[in-house]
Amino acid sequence: MAARGSSRASASTGRTAVAIPQLAWHQIRSAPVVLVSGPEGFLADRSIRSLRDSLKAEDPSLEISDLAANDYAPGELLTLASPSLFGEPRLIRVENVEKCNDVFLSDMLDYLNDPADGTVVVLRHGGGVRGKKLLDAIRAGTGGGIEVICTELKKDSDKYDFAQAEFKAAGKKIAPAALRAITSAFADDLAELAAACQQLISDTAAEITEATVDKYYGGRMETNAFQVADAAIAGRHGEALVSLRHALSSGADPVPMVAAFASKIRTMAKVSGARGGSGQLAQKFGLAPWQVERAQRDLRGWTEDGLGRCIEVLAETDANVKGGGRDPVFALERMIRIVSARGRD
Length: 345
Hints:
Elements: E1 22-24, E2 33-37, H1 41-58, E3 63-68, H2 76-81, E4 90-95, H3 102-112, E5 119-125, H4 132-139, E6 146-149, H5 156-169, H6 176-185, H7 190-203, H8 210-217, H9 225-233, H10 237-249, H11 254-271, H12 278-285, H13 289-298, H14 304-324, H15 328-340
Parallel strand pairs: 1-6, 2-5, 2-6, 3-4, 4-5
């Protein structure tokens, strides 16, 4: 999310106007009050750590203090923010603001009216309605703060972009197939994905290839049916075949493999040619909006005839892997070849 300037909400919405910069997690900077909001804890932690490091680099005498908003005692904030004898800069990190007690809420609201010089107060709010009065005050500009938004990375593309940025920041080259492999291997845990990227960055001198990723994390690269289907639908025939063989060697069943292809291609067929927003189409077809958006992306380069051809092949393959054919693996490889050619084979 890029930095945004001041925005004004319509009075009819009932929402407080946002009058402060709203930044992405990697754009954090110093301000009297820094609100770090959103559910992605890993990105929030990294963002706050980055701010700490930059403040420490500016002045090694930085005093760092921590508070828990849910276990806060009266006057703690004022005590920590009060100028010291030698005037060292201060960083006060406050966690669990989404669970804050009333005493903290009162003290922090008072503090916003007169922030201490040379002090940065970081408020970590993970989401929810608790503390809304405080958040509204900060977003309205009281205290001269900024907001750093740490949204959860749910989409595969978001995680891919995150991993890509890790290697780019380190000046390390990584092949696209290797990047897809490392992202798939650690798609369920952003912290583990970041750690895996950093290990590859520190341990490898040359360009990182898919073989490098397999050497380090082959045990984590459990190919599932949808990964095979995604590669084939995108036209990456070789990658889809390699993924298929890896999945089968790991014990994957051919029947769910065909089911994954059928699920994605039938969704594409539903969405093909339909007009309207993702929410509207999702309601019409009984899908989630993200499924509609994904199908719309997958349809690029496809024709209606190609979709029809692939649906026929899926039915044939389903019958073959359920006992109607002699070689289920051959049937799967044929299906992948035709789907990778978008039904033109």
